[in-house]
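ok trying this again, last paste got cut off
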Amino acid sequence: MGSLRSTQHDCGGGVSHSLSFLLGALLPTVLLLFLASDRVDEQLSSISTFRFRNGSSAHQLTSHAADLPTNGSDGGDKKEESFPGLAELLPRVAMDDGTVIITSVNEAFARPGSLLDLFRGSFHDGEGIGHLLNHTLIVAVDPGALALCKAVHPHCYLLEVMAAGVSSANGFMTRSYLELVWSKLTLQHRVLQLGYNYLYTDLDVLWLRNPFRHISLYADMAVSTDRFNGDAEDLTNAPNTGFYYVRSTNRTVEMVRRWRAARSRFRPLAHDQEVFEAIKGEFVAGELRIKLVFLDTALFDGFCEYHGEMDRVCTMHANCCLRLATKMHDLRNVVADWKRYSSLPPPEKMSSKLRWTYPAKCAATMKIPA
């Protein structure tokens, strides 16, 4: 495509018969690529690092999503003003297929010894996933968090949330908490508009193995679950939006726009997960025809539906847990368990009787039976 543009420029707008013939021959191929662009970025980074011969990555074919607002969504200029510098930062963070890992942090979670240290440490302790930190965008929601992030991580972005108390360890369902979760979704919407896929992860998710190997290539959205019923496409699964992947297409841009807009249909203190749970069927069965899959808790584990096995788990989420100190206590046990398991020689890992320490303190905050 780059050579085609330069030829047109050299001709000063005039097209020879030979060039017309060449254009006619190329047009069907270009059209096929355009029509296929809704699926071209399905090859996740763990499977494919394909690049086109001119050096552009596959996600650039799908960046049209940024310029096609639908059903009354805002145009690109207004969104761009809301997130200065984001469009310039994302190419430095993205994988070859245009996927960005996103998490968010406030000052309380970013302090030394808090969740940010546990989160980043899990990549280094995990099985061959340290490089994924290079593709992780940490969104700071206050200036203090931004400064702490920059001290330890190369890709930090400030999304100031205008709500009281956002720098502290916000309690679940407080007004500050709600403003945080909805503001994060607004930024994620913009990431999709710019043509990038994203995997959003809460900071209280420890990464142990590469999760992309277990996310369907054909999913528009893959979301973790608090409880998994065995069928990845069954809408009765209980989604947890603390860990989910979205592929950038026009349909998913519109899906997230409707997700955000649906907040007004629910009680004032509804959070993003509650709203998504209520309207997920509209995305799947409606005109968007979103391919939604739910992630198995045996692979994407969490404290809600706890599995003791350590041989397959990719991530461990401190869900079904209240209060920062409680999360930190039980997640530190996870880190200690993983280090003991990782230190074993491969043959011993296969026969190991090691199991995760039960998250008793977190379970007590939610009255979850052992």
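PB: full thing came through this time. Residues 1-81 have pLDDT under 50 and may be disordered.
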